[in-house]
């Protein structure tokens, strides 16, 4: 008997020893696995915490003009910009031990297991905030062992590499609050119409209760269940001494105004402009499309919402509803290149093709100021004369003969000045100048002015037969308006990532690309299209809009069989307008030929309403004198018309007009602009036409 007992004891001891060895091996293995996981997690480093967030677009005054998202409203705010009441409420109901555990609340896990066993069902959760954050960031929400293991691994990585405050901030910015609102900022704006920083205790408790079951506890789904959940949150906060019993009671009785509307649910403002901004983000800043759409960017643009409304309003008002004519418009600040308004078509929903930035159309005579600027650089003056008559140009390089025609085949059949040729848009004068300077001169000048579209080196280039883009032309004219300083079209001034870090900021370049004296002389010549003193064999090209002008403008119109343009400016604003058919068919209806000028003028008047009337200031190196606009010579008191005209110093005329002086009269001394009636500044005398 004793022998059998001894054998049993030895056998039991043997089993216990084996079990101990196996247990030790298992514990050692588990420890090795755990340490290996920690080491591997550390080697991998911090996991990226980027999640899809709405990118917001702002106008020049900070107004939100649009956002990009995938039906999910997400906005990131710093932890310090979230109401402390919301932070406390979330910790009380979701994870009271958050600042004490290292990602897993083992006591809570054990309690959940016991509760589930007693109920024989899944009745209690034990996920910490860190675990929920890991799930929201990296995982699908399917209930599998693989997902649970990966969740645990991501939780370890997050806890090892980020502070508790960083984890809590990330959680509050990614958790789902129902109704398409992800993160506390989107939820605060949707439910209460305010920022997360401004939540009251009652509002915070209501929101903190929603993530448990957004479809159940949203006040829009069930106010009764939402209120019941709110009371539980307040009770938990009081139990944890985060608030007093009195504060909890007061908050539970507080009346809440539920808004139920996303703060940026607005119609898309300036859709063509916003498309151009996204194109710049991709092609200039080299951001990928996912970052642009869901990177939580804050994109600060140059758009002026009032001027954008002015542009769209005038286009809608001035173009007949049954017309198929399309339009492109770009308005820029010439001082810095900021694009203030952009219209790429009459109906974005029907056609998102942007005619302001994508369409390449013939600019017609709007090319002529580039040509005449170059001529002034080469010694021409506003008083330089050539014959305006039908002319056939023959070439020695086997090219076909070329015979340009004026509008309506009208010609002076005599000498006219360059100033008058520009004001009347004489084509023969332009081609003669172009060929005299050399056909490459105009191309070189256009490139200096920022025209990047390839231009054809042909005689008709002076008449705008080679296509360009509207935005290019607006930018080119800005160089005249600002006195020759380099500008490029600017759509974006600053871009911030979802954390508010500046990832791009526009820095203007201070560079002179045009001679200030020649640029001003060209600009002053461009005021001539609105000055009836320059009427000749035909009226100045701006004759039909002069009576509606309330300030000084410089500009140039242009037309081909298929395109109509008007580009003009003040020192504050440059605007280019194109109208035509998408298919490039001829514009034959008379009313449609006037759309470009009318849209341009009415937009400029509206856009600049309330702003000071600024003259174009003559720079050093220029001289203003009164001439007879008919022949470009110095005016005498007998000349029926005299016009103040500017020249590069040293190139002004010295010969007096003798067409109106009797033989027994002496030539007067050279009049200065400040003598007699010339005391009136030229920019005021412009309005004394007629």
UniProtKB/TrEMBL annotation:
Q: Where are the transmembrane segments?
A: 20-41
Specify where it is mainly localized: membrane
The biological process GO terms on file are: cell wall organization; peptidoglycan biosynthetic process; proteolysis; regulation of cell shape
Q: Which residues form the Glycosyl transferase family domain?
A: 62-237
InterPro entries, from UniProt?
Beta-lactam/transpept-like, Glyco_trans_51, Glycosyltr_51/Transpeptidase, Lysozyme-like_dom_sf, PBP_transglycosylase, PCN-bd_Tpept
Concerning SUPFAM superfamilies, the annotation shows:
beta-lactamase/transpeptidase-like (SSF56601), Lysozyme-like (SSF53955)
Localization recorded for this chain is: Cell membrane
Catalyzed chemical reaction(s)? Preferential cleavage: (Ac)2-L-Lys-D-Ala-|-D-Ala. Also transpeptidation of peptidyl-alanyl moieties that are N-acyl substituents of D-alanine; [GlcNAc-(1->4)-Mur2Ac(oyl-L-Ala-gamma-D-Glu-L-Lys-D-Ala-D-Ala)](n)-di-trans,octa-cis-undecaprenyl diphosphate + beta-D-GlcNAc-(1->4)-Mur2Ac(oyl-L-Ala-gamma-D-Glu-L-Lys-D-Ala-D-Ala)-di-trans,octa-cis-undecaprenyl diphosphate = [GlcNAc-(1->4)-Mur2Ac(oyl-L-Ala-gamma-D-Glu-L-Lys-D-Ala-D-Ala)](n+1)-di-trans,octa-cis-undecaprenyl diphosphate + di-trans,octa-cis-undecaprenyl diphosphate + H(+)
Domain Penicillin-binding protein transpeptidase as annotated: residue spans: 329-578
Which keywords describe this protein according to UniProt?
A: Carboxypeptidase, Cell membrane, Cell shape, Cell wall biogenesis/degradation, Glycosyltransferase, Hydrolase, Membrane, Multifunctional enzyme, Peptidoglycan synthesis, Protease, Transferase, Transmembrane, Transmembrane helix
Q: Name one GO cellular component term.
A: plasma membrane
Specify one Pfam family. Transpeptidase
Gene3D superfamilies from the xrefs? Biosynthetic peptidoglycan transglycosylase-like (1.10.3810.10), DD-peptidase/beta-lactamase superfamily (3.40.710.10)
Question: Which molecular-function annotation in GO is an example for this chain?
Answer: peptidoglycan glycosyltransferase activity
Membership in a protein family? In the C-terminal section; belongs to the transpeptidase family.
In Swiss-Prot or TrEMBL terms, this protein is called: Penicillin-binding protein
């Amino acid at each position: 008997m004793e022998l059998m007992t001894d054998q049993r004891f030895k056998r039991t001891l043997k089993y216990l020893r084996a079990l101990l060895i196996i247990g030790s091996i298992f514990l050692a293995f588990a420890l090795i696995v755990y340490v290996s996981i920690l080491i591997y997690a550390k080697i991998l480093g911090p996991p990226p915490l980027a999640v899809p967030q709405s990118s917001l677009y702002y106008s020049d005054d900070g107004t939100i003009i649009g956002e990009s998202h995938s039906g999910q409203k997400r906005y990131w705010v710093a932890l310090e910009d979230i109401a402390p009441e919301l932070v406390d409420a979330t910790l009380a109901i979701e994870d009271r031990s958050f600042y004490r555990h290292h990602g897993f609340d083992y006591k809570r896990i054990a309690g959940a297991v016991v509760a589930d066993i007693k109920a024989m069902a899944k009745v209690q959760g034990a996920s910490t905030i860190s675990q929920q954050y890991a799930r929201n960031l990296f995982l699908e929400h399917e209930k599998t062992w693989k997902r649970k293991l990966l969740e645990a691994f991501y939780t370890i990585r997050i806890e090892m590499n980020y502070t508790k405050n960083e984890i809590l901030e990330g959680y509050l910015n990614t958790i789902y609050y129902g109704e398409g609102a992800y993160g506390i900022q989107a939820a605060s704006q949707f439910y209460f119409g305010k920022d997360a920083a401004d939540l009251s205790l009652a509002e915070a408790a209501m929101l903190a209760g929603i993530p448990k079951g957004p479809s159940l506890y949203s006040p829009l789904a069930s106010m009764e269940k939402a209120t019941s959940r709110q009371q539980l949150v307040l009770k938990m906060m009081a139990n944890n001494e985060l608030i007093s019993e009195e504060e909890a009671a007061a908050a539970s009785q507080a009346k809440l105004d539920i808004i139920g509307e996303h703060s940026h649910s607005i119609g898309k403002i300036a859709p063509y402009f916003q498309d151009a901004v996204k194109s710049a983000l991709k092609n200039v800043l080299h951001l990928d499309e996912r970052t642009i759409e869901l990177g939580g960017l804050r994109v600060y643009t140059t758009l002026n919402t009032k001027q954008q409304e002015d542009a769209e309003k005038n286009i809608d008002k001035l173009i007949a509803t049954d017309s198929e004519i399309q339009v492109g418009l770009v308005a820029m600040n010439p001082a810095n290149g900021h694009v203030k308004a952009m219209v790429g078509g009459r109906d974005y929903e029907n056609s998102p093709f942007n005619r302001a930035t994508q369409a390449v159309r013939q600019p017609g005579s709007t090319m002529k100021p580039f040509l005449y600027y170059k001529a002034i650089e080469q010694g021409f003056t506003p008083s330089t004369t050539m014959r305006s008559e039908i002319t056939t140009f023959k070439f020695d390089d086997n090219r076909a003969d070329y015979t340009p025609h004026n509008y309506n085949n009208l010609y002076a059949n005599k000498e006219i000045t360059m100033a008058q040729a520009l004001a009347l848009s004489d084509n023969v004068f332009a081609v003669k100048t172009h060929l005299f300077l050399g056909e490459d001169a105009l191309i070189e000048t256009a490139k200096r002015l920022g025209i990047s579209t390839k231009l054809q080196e042909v005689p008709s280039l002076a008449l705008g037969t080679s296509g360009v883009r509207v935005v290019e032309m607006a930018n080119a004219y800005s160089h005249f308006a600002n006195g020759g300083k380099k500008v490029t079209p600017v759509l974006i001034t600053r871009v911030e990532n979802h954390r508010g870090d500046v990832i791009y900021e526009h820095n203007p370049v201070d560079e002179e690309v045009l001679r200030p004296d020649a640029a001003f002389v060209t600009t002053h010549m461009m005021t001539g299209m609105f000055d009836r003193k320059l009427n000749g064999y035909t009226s100045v090209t701006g004759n039909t809009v002069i009576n509606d002008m309330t300030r000084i403008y410089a500009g140039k119109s242009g037309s081909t069989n298929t395109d109509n343009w008007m580009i003009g400016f003040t020192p504050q604003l440059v605007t280019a307008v194109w109208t035509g058919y998408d298919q490039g068919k001829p514009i034959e209806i008379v009313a449609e030929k006037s759309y470009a000028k009318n849209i341009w003028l009415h937009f400029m008047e509206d856009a600049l309403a309330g702003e000071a009337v600024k003259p174009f200031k003559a720079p050093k190196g220029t001289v203003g004198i009164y001439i007879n606009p008919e022949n470009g010579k110095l005016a005498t008191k007998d000349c029926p018309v005299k016009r103040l005209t500017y020249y590069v110093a040293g190139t002004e005329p010295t010969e007096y007009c003798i067409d109106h002086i009797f033989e027994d009269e002496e030539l007067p001394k050279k009049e200065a602009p400040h003598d007699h009636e010339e005391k009136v500044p030229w920019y005021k005398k412009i309005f004394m036409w007629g």
